[in-house]
From TrEMBL, chains A, B, C, D:
GO terms for biological process: glyoxylate catabolic process. Keywords: Lyase, Schiff base. It comes from the Eukaryota. It comes from Callorhinchus milii (Ghost shark). Homotetramer. This is 4-hydroxy-2-oxoglutarate aldolase, mitochondrial. Transmembrane segments: none annotated.
Amino acid sequence: MLQRLIGICQTLSRRGKSFSLCQMLKRGLRLGLGLSPVRHYTLDLRGIYPPITTPFNPLGQLQYQQLVDNVHRWSQLPFRGLVVQGSNGEYPFLTETERVEVVNRVRQVVPADKLVVAGSGCESTEATLEMTKKMAAVGADAVMVVTPSYYRGRLNSAAFVHHYSRVADGSPVPVVLYSVPGNTGLELPLDAILTLSQHPNIIGLKDSGGDITRMALIIYKTRKQEFQVLAGSAGFLLSAYSVGAVGAVCALANVLGEQLCSLEKLCLSGKWEEALELQYRLLEPNTMVTRTLGISGLKQALEWFGYHGGVPRSPLQPLTDTERTDLRAVFTNNGWL
Amino acid sequence: MLQRLIGICQTLSRRGKSFSLCQMLKRGLRLGLGLSPVRHYTLDLRGIYPPITTPFNPLGQLQYQQLVDNVHRWSQLPFRGLVVQGSNGEYPFLTETERVEVVNRVRQVVPADKLVVAGSGCESTEATLEMTKKMAAVGADAVMVVTPSYYRGRLNSAAFVHHYSRVADGSPVPVVLYSVPGNTGLELPLDAILTLSQHPNIIGLKDSGGDITRMALIIYKTRKQEFQVLAGSAGFLLSAYSVGAVGAVCALANVLGEQLCSLEKLCLSGKWEEALELQYRLLEPNTMVTRTLGISGLKQALEWFGYHGGVPRSPLQPLTDTERTDLRAVFTNNGWL
Amino acid sequence: MLQRLIGICQTLSRRGKSFSLCQMLKRGLRLGLGLSPVRHYTLDLRGIYPPITTPFNPLGQLQYQQLVDNVHRWSQLPFRGLVVQGSNGEYPFLTETERVEVVNRVRQVVPADKLVVAGSGCESTEATLEMTKKMAAVGADAVMVVTPSYYRGRLNSAAFVHHYSRVADGSPVPVVLYSVPGNTGLELPLDAILTLSQHPNIIGLKDSGGDITRMALIIYKTRKQEFQVLAGSAGFLLSAYSVGAVGAVCALANVLGEQLCSLEKLCLSGKWEEALELQYRLLEPNTMVTRTLGISGLKQALEWFGYHGGVPRSPLQPLTDTERTDLRAVFTNNGWL
Amino acid sequence: MLQRLIGICQTLSRRGKSFSLCQMLKRGLRLGLGLSPVRHYTLDLRGIYPPITTPFNPLGQLQYQQLVDNVHRWSQLPFRGLVVQGSNGEYPFLTETERVEVVNRVRQVVPADKLVVAGSGCESTEATLEMTKKMAAVGADAVMVVTPSYYRGRLNSAAFVHHYSRVADGSPVPVVLYSVPGNTGLELPLDAILTLSQHPNIIGLKDSGGDITRMALIIYKTRKQEFQVLAGSAGFLLSAYSVGAVGAVCALANVLGEQLCSLEKLCLSGKWEEALELQYRLLEPNTMVTRTLGISGLKQALEWFGYHGGVPRSPLQPLTDTERTDLRAVFTNNGWL
């Protein structure tokens, strides 16, 4: 019966209803049934997600219709869902209102069987919790919470445990931890992750750091909690699957979504050799739209693949001609254009 | 006559009027008088500034009356002005409304002959410009703009030059660059600083990095622009004066403001030996309230010195007992408590 | 016939004869037979290698008999060979004479069908070449050359290409590149590796950095050169195999050699699930004897597994009691002791 | 009487005699006279030192006659002494024999009233001690011991304290600590320095890190030990004097020795404004021959200033044409060529 109730909750949640009732229900049931030692996923995260970009016009104005158009196309791919306002969504450049409205618009378009995972992280704990609630209210199935980073000198494990526990306690939807040292300059410490993995409303981690040993260790040490680990980049997707990750959030999925879903399928069905051939050809394009050229590169590539790309907000700058040529060459040389 | 007009403008500005008229006037006069090759400071920044803290109660609510009380006390010290919402002001934890209101309240209390330099930096260029205008509108004499940092992989000199030029073009008040690698994990590149020093509305730099060779080089290479460099910490205040800095914004000035103004005076009057004796005794307390214990330490020290300190917003945590004891020992051992 | 000649050369080389004749012969044959476009391995590196430790007594004196005893035991395991004077061999603490003599002694003990790969890297190019020749003269089958690092500010790709080309030109045995940022603080740049992979006497890379995306990219971009990539740690061994690595040099193989050879076999036979279960249990012990406790930890573990461990030379210090207890717990908890 | 005996010892030592007798004498006297609480410098380090380069011909052969020629010229400048085999002496590229012989040759040429401070650091403690003894035996007045760095993961304060204590215990001449993060990638920790400053045979520190706050703190915290701190670069020489450093070891002194001695004099006589004008003009040339172009740049500059420069040993590469032009421009633009 518990399973069925959880199932109903998940269905409701995917339809954009508020989670709070469901969550309370689930928690109460667990407690009532003495289920606390056994952990059930409140949400199954397995699969591939594009961390979708946010389209702007050259004046920097948010183009909602273009966003909706893109989402329609992404919705036709076998993604598990979309990540809205990961780093590639330029969330630090959006106003509070825009952040919520983007989630709202995406949720309205995305089919009910696909997840909307919304990036609700802010520097302060309270702001993160507020944003979490607002995003949940417009239908986010889960939130992905990036580490605060500004006061890095004092952000030790204790501070992170406090921050995420407080957010997860108050969040109407499940919470996914998000560590992205390439942007924040810091890594969510291993011991903090292990502690937080025991929180009933923290269901997983997106790790973009690319340290595969660390990722394997996290998976191994949290297997009793059935904590779900997602790779944060297409560059190490195959390797992540090889050590037990359940999915990936990859910038490259914005443009090569089908291929990344194929790679997932090959990994899950044990066709590692084929998987590797595909993984190889994704390495360089992935590096280009992440480390080398970032969102500017990704948005340019989107244009080539028929999506609305546009330019990022300033201070990010559009590609130079040389950069555009290099980017094109990499996609061409690997057989994608 | 030009000097007098500039003087009037500055007086107006310190009284909380909009700068835009003054700025246009000054620029027009300069152009009309053929003064462009000669650069006059639009604002004389020389002196010591505390980057004031923002008081919260244990629930995290902003305590405006406590802020005002503190500002009254700081106003009695021979500071050149106050920096509102530097890193120690916990600006990343404030809402947009709070950020502006804090500047507003401070400006109402601070005497007209003291500057209010407001931290208006945001991740995006447009948000920074908007915040700049709002802070100017409530009476900030200048804005101090921290480097964006989230998309660090793409934040090269060209991006920074674009960002700061755009903000300075649109700002009704002069702009001070702000490089604080201890928090952002990146340093505003030297070549970007040199380029930006030529912008008529960029009047200086607060450098908290502590690389004294770099600071000396910036001062040397911008001396034709009469660009004003402020040290970003009390730890290297004497050294900064020794290489030509015009002042300092020091966390420690929140609690030992008088002593830091004395140190300034000793440096400016060439009493280097006395200055050094004083500098020595400030080193350890400074390290404690910056690198070691951060804002939590600074707020604890404020309590001991009779100010409203309180606790920082989460995820920053109050001091542990051990940390409090260590902090106390350092202030005591150096003769300050 | 070419293959047979190469075979003879390899046999000769393993018996401690000079390679130079063989190398000339092979090159000449290739040229004569117009074989330059097709690259054949001069040495097949596939397999697992322990980077063996060097035993010292408490006075820091090298214990050759203990070394020989250990090598006898390691020789009974299905290793491809031994790496002598990798980082775990404390090569920076050995005199020039000791470095050569250790290789000599090991070569005398190791069966002819197992490789002796000797670490011959020094800071200067000429010293590296001299050491390479001496180690080849006492029977090293190949040399593994760590990146110089002291003048890191000037060690760009051009410098590395020059360094390794010069060494490989003059070396009587094949050269393996060695990048170990955990010790040197720098990484051999990707472009330098790609250039060097085309050198006929550079046959592979040991990469201890653990960036699996980079490793995959190196393998992909050098597949035409049949360049052999070895993982530099047991922590990412499975992942390395998943992206096409041909083997591994793992500190942990000093103590858990059989298990690492089993892991290799499981990976090569496509039994990825079993492999993963084994990999998981190796993660923590591996971290302990590398990052956390280093050689001191490895030598302590050797004692527990019946080898001669001893203590490292100073400034490395023996384990504290707490460290020893922690180390023991990790081996015990993972079922190895 | 003690002072006189110490004076005799120092005179002897400067003439290249073994220190061991003197040291024993001094220690015995101190103990006998109950003087341990009062610390007297065993060697007065105050002044400017060039860390001299080692000339090679294009084949990489050490050119002793060129070295001697250079030393003759440097000896005519008001240096306190020469540092032989600092980082600029390419010590990691010299054989053990060359290292000792270079010190020997220099000592034979340098006048008795100038110090020869010899870089004796090796990775292992015992090798460092052996090298120290050999350099003392050929007349080094003191040794400067760079931090080991290869096993950085385990080189904590305890390891450094053990390393330096052991070397200082066994050294016949006083020991100067040497921290150079630009080359080693690590910094000798503050707490290790404070502990080591109490050792009777450790008389100072060369700090090349350029963190002036740290330097000031070291000077302040060791003032009871009269520990002597030398700046490790011309870039922050004035600032170092401003916080109490007693001298400097500057690469730039190889070519602009007279100017650096003038800068010292200006600082010591309190002529800070003149000093600053001179310091400014040294900043860019200093950066060029250290961070930007390193030893290759320094050796090129030596040629322009009439010394024997030559090229560094490989893997360091000679300047490219562009680099040479840039270097020349910097010396010209600052009025030195």
